[in-house]
Every structure is written in structure tokens, then in C-alpha cells.
Amino acid sequence: MNPKTPSKLEKILASGRLAVTSECGPPRGCDGDAIAKKAEMIKDYVDAINITDNQTSVTRLCSLAAVIRLKLMGLEPILQMVTRDRNRIALQSDILGAASFEINNILCLSGDHQQFGDNPQAQNVFDIDSMQLIQTVRYMRDEGKFLGGDDLEKSPQMFVGAACNPFADPFEIRVRRLAKKVAAGVEFIQTQCIYNLDKFELWMQQVRDKGLHEKTYILAGVTPFKSAGMAKYMKNRVPGMDVPDEVVKRMSGVDKDKQPEEGIKICIESIQRLKDVEGVRGFHIMAIEWEEKVPEIVEKSGLLPRPSVS
Amino acid sequence: MIVAERKPLDEIIGFIKDCKKILIVGCNECVTVCYAGGKKEVAILASALKMAFLKEGKELEVKEVTLERQCDQEYLEEIRDIVDEYDAIVSMACGVGVQFMAEKYQSIPVYPALNTLFMGGAEEMGVWSERCQGCGQCILGETAGICPITRCAKRLLNGPCGGSTQGHCEINKDVPCAWQLIIDRLKALRRLDDYDKLLSIKDWSTERSGGPRKIVREDLQQ
Amino acid sequence: MPCTGRVDVIHLMEAFQRGADGVYVVGCLEGECHYLTGNLRGKKRVLYTKQLLDEIGVGGERLEMYNIAASDGPRFSEVAREMDEKIRALGPSPIKTMLQKIHVDDLSIHV
């Protein structure tokens, strides 16, 4: 596939190399430095950095401002955009805003329900859903028009991504759902973090059977466990998460002070195994509030050096 | 039907605390069916308010009337002759009835005794749930008879989201995932391939955000 | 009443409205209702009314439901005593107090 945008991430994926992305959560205040510091820690170990958009509906510094900052630092950001908080006017407007700073990557999401955040009494928007947002960005880029039909004076050159959860219910339609996103125009996918490698491989088999792995770049999501407690929490309390018992046992079977190390080991082993899965074109490392471990994970997984792209 | 429930008593008492004579008006339709504002509920509220006032050493005179509907001029007209005798009207109708009442009898304060919640139906005796958001462009024909605008907490037209867990919504175990329901229904209809169709961006101009809605049927106007 | 299933919220409310200090509803043992589930319905309405009485400030504890077999005289008098003691401990209902006061005030006007 030839790259269609100036996106560095797209270029790396198009060249056939494995890509590595990671994410940073913006601060709960207006300190722009906080996000810059996090990005500095990981910039030489990843090809692109996601900035989350009021994740879990907790109000934070907006993704748009943070990705602009990262771009001005010379980094390759991915603008995450949920449809929970903005209508199609604001969404298109923010896409243009990001593109005006030459931000070339966007991840289209619906967003967690506001009930989970710090403003459960807020209205939600959901003027359009994540699939329709994918369609919107593609339309703006490829047709050079606004949703309303007017011509864009200059169209955003965005590489369009979305999330995918092979482990959410109902499992049987998760592949159909990916197919739908591909039909909507998605160009890269970051999956939810994978612990059940068998199930993921099964899902990938079904993805390949439909030829979807050739129509979109799939980046496998991984998250290192910091503790056995975290593993148990994610297993039992986080919807759409599949953490096999063996993994929890492995974390619990180690002394508390050794657990972070074990978590990282598991993460690295997963990456090594996932490298051999046909259709996996890269990794999305989500080390929430543990960004400092990303360099180690990337290095020990044999993913260095990261390619330099003009 | 429109489903509503009674406001907390102290809120209602707050509205009428300076009144000596009130008229409580019930409605014989939706709010009767959901046991919120029919004749029985009017009697119970009357008794409760009288006792609440008595407790404070005050007396409250209450007249109880239940109209067939409060969203219809001809029924509202029935209380015209008695309305002036009261300090306030407490309407046990849904928000529609309360407003029609207030519009008709402008010189008397009209207070709502209910919180109107949704358009829905009875799942079983004593359990009512929401089914319609009145979007003005019904898509039930495309979603196997299940409305994702009403029953999906994110009103996704191409769901489910990643939070769907074992058939229920991420917000609450008691809320079924609308998209799970749609998928199950499509399977039962042997039309699961319909799921692959992308539903297009919705025209919301006919729902609430487009402004208050109105239908005019010239063929029926007099 | 043929069955506690016939007891409705308004009956209970009116009793208190007229100054009752306490009300107890006695139905058949659960599972032995002559009309099968009448006593269960009665119980739910009693619970609903208790909440209402709490909201008004009269006190839901002044209303209780008991289940006693029709033939169980001793249990019946036991319950009667229990209820009596309970209500005495709670004192007169605030409604009754106010009704008496109003009545007295009315009388004093005539005098």
C-alpha cells in the first residue's frame, strides 16, 4: 500500500516495517510541560504517540492542544478524538485545527460514557459515532469537502485509525465489526491490550480469512501489569478485558516487589509471540502512568532501532 | 405511553406551603397506567399533604378531581367553574398536562406533582422502561425492531462499543446492550448480514435539538 | 376485609389522617393465603405506606403488618400487646395531637 498522507506512521507501515506507538494521558490542569515531559521519555522508542481525549470521561487538558505541542517539539502525534463530547461541527473544526499544524494521524473513538468520569451529570453528544467519524475524516481528506457539502479550502491529510477490541462481547461479531470499520475507511487499528494470546490469534485467523489484514494495518495493543492487584482489577472490573487466570497466577506467584518486573517480562514475551502472528503490523504500548517503562519494553522486545523517516 | 413518577413529598409541599386551599387534578390515561397520577394517587397525595400540613399545625383544604386527559382542551374545560376557588392547582399529569393546564388557567399557579421521565411501556407489572426518544425519523425497520437511539446509552448507530459486556451496557448491569439485542434479533430473523451495513449519519434536525416540534394536519383543522 | 390483599394504601393513610396512633394489618401466614398471594400484595402496600408516612413525618414505624394463622389466638393477643407497647412508647401521633388541638381551639371559640 502506498502512503496517502505525509504521516510518518503511515510511511513506516507502508514500508513493511513493524511500527511502535504508545500513548500519553494529558494532565488534569493546564501545565503543558507535563505532557512534554512524558513525550520526551518515550520519543526515541516509538514512531508515534497517541494523546488520549478526556479518557474515561475524566476532564483533562484537551488532546488537540497536546498534539500541537508535541508536533511543535518535532514529534509524531496521534490525535485521539471521541464523539462523546463534540458534535459534527466541533469535530470537523478540531480536525482542521490539528491538520493546520500538520498533524497527520487521528484515532476515531466513541468514548467511555460520562458516568465514569468527573461529570456524570453532563449531557453527552454522540452526534455521530466512531464509524461515522472515520467516514467523515476520509470524506474531508479524499473528497475535500465538509460533511455539509461545501468545499474545503484545504483538506486535512490525516491517516485514519480506530480502536478494536477482539475481547469485547459479543465475540462472534468482533470481526464483522472490524470489517465495518474497514468499509468505513479505517487505515490503521490499535487493539485493546492483549493478555489472552490464544484468543487473539483466533481472532486474527478470522481477520485474515476475511482479508482484512491486508486492508488495514493492525497494531497489537499491550499493557504491562504493575502488580498482581492491577491484573486482578483489570480481569474483574474493566469491561471488555480478557485476562486469563494463568497470567494472574503468574503475577501473584511472585513477591510484591518483583511484580513490576514480572509484568514487564510478560509484556515483552507477548510482543515476541505477537511478532509471529501474520497480520500484526506493529505494537501499541499502553503503559498508563508508567511511561518510563516504555523504553525498556521496546528495547528488550528487539524493536530498536526505530526507523527514521523524512 | 408517557411514564412518570411522583416527586418527593417535600418538594411538592415546598410548592404549596403558603396555600390554604388546593385543587389536585389527576389524569386518567398514561399516569394512571403507571400508577403515578391517577385517581388513586390523587387521593393518596391529598391525604399525605393534609397530614403533612396538620403536623405543622396548619390545615389544608384539598379538592380532588381526575380528568380523562389533561392534554386536551375539552377535558380541561370541565374544571373551569371551580378553579378560581383555589390558591393553586397541583397537577398529577405528565409535563404535557401540567403545561396545558397552566396555559388554560393563567391566573392560578399550577405545580407539577410528577417528574415526567420517558416514553415507554410496561415490561411487567410495576416495571416500566424507555423505548422511544421521539427522534422523528424512525429507524426501527433497519435495526430489527430495537431502537439504538433510545436503548444504547451512546445512541450508536453502528454499535456495540467496546464496553458491551455479557449482553449488558457498560453503564449498568441492569441495562441490556442495545446492540447485543439487535444482533440477537437479527440472528433470530436469519438476517445477521444486515449488521454489516453501515448506518449513515443521522439527521437530528427533527429531534429536540432542532427546536420544539409541531405537527399541523390541515385536513383535520376546523 | 376478606383478605389483606384488599388493603389499599389510601385506607391506611386515612386511618392516620383521622388520628390513629398506630395501625396494624394482620394477614394469613405467608404461603397460606386463602386467595394465594393476597397477603403478599398487602405486605407490599404496607411497606409503601410506611415509606410515605416517613416522608410526611408521621413515622412509618406506626404501621406494621403481621402474619398470623386464623386459628392462632394466643399469637394474635401477643401481637396486639406488642403493637400496643410499641405505639405507647412512640407516643400519640402528631396528627392526632394537632387534630385535638384544633378541636379544642374550635371549642374555645364557642365558649
Summary tags:
heterotrimer, A: 310 residues, TIM Barrel, eight-stranded parallel beta barrel, 11 helices, B: 222 residues, alpha/beta, Rossmann fold, four-stranded parallel beta sheet, three-stranded antiparallel beta sheet
What is the mean pLDDT of chain A?
A: 96
- Structural class from helices and strands of chain C? mainly alpha
Q: Could you name the CATH class of chain A? A: Alpha Beta
Helix content of chain A: 25-40%
What is the CA–CA distance across the termini of chain C?
42 Å
Percent of residues in β-strands of chain A: 5-15%
Tell the overall outline of chain C: globular
What features would you describe in this structure?
The complex is a heterotrimer of chains A (310), B (222) and C (111). Helices cover 39% and strands 15% of the residues of chain A. Chain A contains 11 helices and 8 strands. The mean pLDDT of chain A is 96. Chain A has one domain (8-300): TIM Barrel, CATH 3.20.20.220. Chain A has 310 residues and is α/β, with parallel strands linked by helices. In chain A, helix 5 links the parallel strand 4 (105-109) and strand 5 (159-164). The relative contact order of chain A is 0.14. Chain B is of the alpha/beta class. Chain B has helices spanning 9-16, 30-33, 39-55, 73-76, 80-83, 95-104, 148-151, 178-188, and strands at residues 2-6, 21-27, 61-67, 88-91, 110-112, 114-124, 127-132. The longest helix of chain B is centred in the N-terminal third of the chain and has 17 residues, at 39-55. The longest helix of chain C is centred in the middle third of the chain and has 19 residues, at 38-56. Chain C starts with 8 loop residues before the first helix and ends with a helix. In chain C, helix 2 links the parallel strand 1 and strand 2 (63-67). Chain C has 4 helices and 2 strands. Chain C has one domain (4-110). Chain C has 111 residues and is mainly alpha-helical. Chain C has helices at 9-17, 38-56, 73-90, 94-110, and strands at 23-27, 63-67. Classes of the chains: A alpha/beta (310), B alpha/beta (222), C mainly alpha (111).
